[in-house]
């Protein structure tokens, strides 16, 4: 899970990932790829489209929250 500043950015990144993974598309909006491949596609699309935006992976946010705001 990737946190992004707003829904518009999330939608744009999601559409890019769907296009990038289109060769592996299955019915119902699923893709026949390993989790690592999907994660890499998400990271690549987010950096490619919004290189300067503040984004964080869910586990990074949880670690920061657990440590009282310290990274």
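^ Assign residues to that structure.
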């Amino acid at each position: 899970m990737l946190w992004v500043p707003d829904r518009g950015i999330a939608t744009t990144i999601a559409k890019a990932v769907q296009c990038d993974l289109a060769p592996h598309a299955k019915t119902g909006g699923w893709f026949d790829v390993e989790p690592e491949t999907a994660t890499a596609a998400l990271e690549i699309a987010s950096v490619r489209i919004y290189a300067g935006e503040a984004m964080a992976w869910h586990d990074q946010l949880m670690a920061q929250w657990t440590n009282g705001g310290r990274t």
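Residues 35-49 form the longest helix (15 residues).
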